[in-house]
């Protein structure tokens, strides 16, 4: 298995180092050969090649079976022209490889529940996954620009083709089948035409999955429920912009952003895996970052791209054990009990458990 | 002063009755003559006139100085054609009267803090107001419809003119001036052209309000911060769709949706005032609804449309006292301490305090 490794910016390289150690340990144990090759993306790629997504990186990804990505962005690249901003690398790679299905699991870790801004009884039973459409909608619709004699009008376009909605909706149904068989489809059908089409397609697809219970929810209502009843969700599916907002809101539920992995998939096994957190320039290079989201992203890769269920679970269990043993990076540390550790020590603890 | 009163559907009429009693009590005390005239909107208007916003209602509002609205919607109107759905009445009246500035204050009531899904220390110091643009963006942009040979493409349009953004941004700055002088402008400038224009306009306007501290925040980040650090906000300003989502999320912070009023304003003193909660068909007609959001909407009307600051504060204090005395409608009731009351009793308690 060949893996393109794109550490990116900020804490990206640090957490990636930890994740690669974990990958190696799992490979050794199960006798898998993982071939990793590093490439540039984001600000690091702008510095090296003048582009946040250089042709070299695209080539590397094309000959790989999966991509591991750290994080992109930082203050030094914020004032570059639009096309050179680090996030263009991220949007570009999603579109280039048609990674239309962004999966973001949100699950409360027992030993971390006290870190949540929400009350214990509300967080306790949260175990959901958000499926966000990632290559359509307002992010890529045309026209997107200025109009009028004096550029006094700005326009963006929210556009979806039926087929784009169908593939993400079916992905979500199949996922729900393997979980608690509850699907919440989020839209704004009382206002948007794209949402009305979305709803029709969900209803049509639902016929093929009679065992899955489907619920339609308006996006404003979903934003409320994520705060006061997040435990009611199993799989939530929604379009790109709504998914951006709701999945970030949901990432706060557990209070441990540094723990959340994500996968961006297409129809075949190929996928991109990255932590939900960003590049955290303020702590970059200090050895303080929490590597667990990146490590759990490796587990998602093993599961979704390589079909290695057992290997994935082994990593997840090792992470759980390290947390149960009381080890905490700064983001999880609230003083008092437990043992404070840095990025490298945390990664090594997971590796130890695997060995 | 002439007020158009549109009770609407579900619990709308019940909470409106309470609010009108309170209005009368304040009028008597201060010797103001408020002339109220009722009209139809939403499902009630569909039943009566075949349209959710009949010409009669528009006429009534035109000859009034302000509008009080209860709530619209209910299951019996959900399958009507798009143009007859109750929410079209709401969207229509906003557009008809160019009520472009939707103000939604979110403030924790000391005696209700335990109702919040968030931990006490997070809710405690929340006192913010969301200023949502209400007559532009995705809600009204054209084209909005189906395209392609087989209607296989759906499109909505996010469009803003400079002047539309300027007026809402200045409104928000002026509000911030009167409060804690902190303005958070929310956009998605790393993806949307409309957001980039929005950000430029905020930066330009900021020069006229040097005493107001301005911060730009991406919408996904704002959705996170509302959950883990809501106390950091003073005034938040954003476009229509983002405002819909974020203000509903924010309405959960205090755990008392039944307490939140809102105002929809234009440049002059005219405005529409309504509770944030909906028509709650499940408890309609049972005398259980919480009238306080509607009552507090009356206070907002006195303040914003009639310049009656003292009168508004008197209502707000009366509400506070009734809560401090332990009275609770079903939505606030968690058993144990306090006294459970219904809609009418709650309204009468507020009236008593005023007399
Ligand atoms: C960086 C930005 C363009 C990106 C997005 O909005 O998709 C990010 O917020 C994310 O969710 O991955
Ligand atoms: C009913 C609906 C059209 C409306 C909106 O989206 O504006 C409502 O959610 C609101 O926030 O007032």
Automatic annotation (TrEMBL), chains A, B:
InterPro entries the UniProt entry points to: IsoCit/isopropylmalate_DH_CS, IsoPropMal-DH-like_dom, Isopropylmalate_DH
Superkingdom classification of source: Bacteria
UniProt site (Important for catalysis): 139, 188
Cofactor note: Binds 1 Mg(2+) or Mn(2+) ion per subunit.
Enzyme class: oxidoreductase
The enzyme's E.C. designation: 1.1.1.85
Isopropylmalate dehydrogenase-like domain segment(s): 2-350
Residues involved in substrate binding: 94, 104, 132, 220
GO cellular component, as recorded: cytosol
GO MF annotations, alphabetized: 3-isopropylmalate dehydrogenase activity; magnesium ion binding; NAD binding
SMART domains: Iso_dh
Keyword annotations of the record: Amino-acid biosynthesis, Branched-chain amino acid biosynthesis, Cytoplasm, Leucine biosynthesis, Magnesium, Manganese, Metal-binding, NAD, Oxidoreductase
Catalytic reaction list: (2R,3S)-3-isopropylmalate + NAD(+) = 4-methyl-2-oxopentanoate + CO2 + NADH
Positions bound to Mg(2+): 220, 244, 248
Pathways involved: Amino-acid biosynthesis; L-leucine biosynthesis; L-leucine from 3-methyl-2-oxobutanoate: step 3/4
Subunit structure: Homodimer.
Family that this chain belongs to: Belongs to the isocitrate and isopropylmalate dehydrogenases family. LeuB type 1 subfamily.
Protein's job: Catalyzes the oxidation of 3-carboxy-2-hydroxy-4-methylpentanoate (3-isopropylmalate) to 3-carboxy-4-methyl-2-oxopentanoate. The product decarboxylates to 4-methyl-2 oxopentanoate.
Listed name of the protein: 3-isopropylmalate dehydrogenase
